[in-house]
Amino acid sequence: MRAVFVILVGMLWSATAWTLPPDRVIKLEVGKAASELAAKGSWELHSTDPQVLKATYFDTAEVLLEAGEAGSALLLLFNQVIDRFGVWRVQVATPATERVRPPLSAWAAVPGCQAEAYPVTCLIKDANALSQIRALLRGSDLTTGDLRIVYSVGGAQALLKILQEEVKRAGFSGVELALSGANLRVSAKVADAKERMSLLLVLYRHMVGKLVLENRIVLSNPVHPRQQ
């Protein structure tokens, strides 16, 4: 089994600020390792905290996850060829903790949400609904498979306003965002792969629902990942 590449990028985001549902939630014990399957292809892997998590992608489509100290880290997966962006949340503890999901009654209290069972379906009509859903996601172990989000025109406008404000607050300029069906179209020019991943992380943190990317991000100084 040959390791294709691994990139570890420490990004300055607080773990407590991550409220969006990742694609997977993985629980590991301190010092342990585990393998997860991903799609085959050319993937860049970025850990938001290399002290907590290191990850390596192999050409068998396996991702080796190596737990370090106790904590929480996001593993960001990006494939430029197929414009696919994914996020796994890895929580490291001794012993490994169980998954936490909000009770269905909490979802039923949110306007526009149908919560008879997981997955919960929510129609987001405005910024207030976005705020309520973020509050439920905060501290939970939900994944994108647990939550189905649909945006009305008003909800989509509220989301884009929040994303644009947060992108500017993070120091990015010249970023154009648009919702195209279920996709978020991102047009921007950034310095390199690290800055691209930082931009995608900002968008992930403030998007409610799965971040399906229509990538129009151009790198000024593209550097191919080093073979390991």
Would you report the number of β strands? 14
General shape = globular
Largest sheet: 4 strands, antiparallel
Order of helices and strands: EEEEEEEEHEEHEHEEHE
Kindly provide the radius of gyration, computed on alpha-carbon positions and rounded to a whole number of angstroms: 18 Å
Largest sheet strand order: 1-5-6-3
Distance between the termini: 12 Å
Helix tally equals 4
Low-confidence runs (pLDDT<50, min 5 residues)? 1-18
- How much is the average pLDDT? 86
SSE topology:
Blueprint: E1 3-5, E2 24-29, E3 33-37, E4 44-47, E5 53-58, E6 62-67, E7 71-79, E8 84-93, H1 104-108, E9 113-114, E10 120-124, H2 127-137, E11 147-151, H3 153-169, E12 176-180, E13 183-190, H4 193-206, E14 213-219
Parallel strand pairs: 2-8, 10-11, 13-14
Antiparallel strand pairs: 1-5, 3-6, 4-7, 5-6, 7-8, 9-10, 12-13
Helix pairs in contact: 3-4
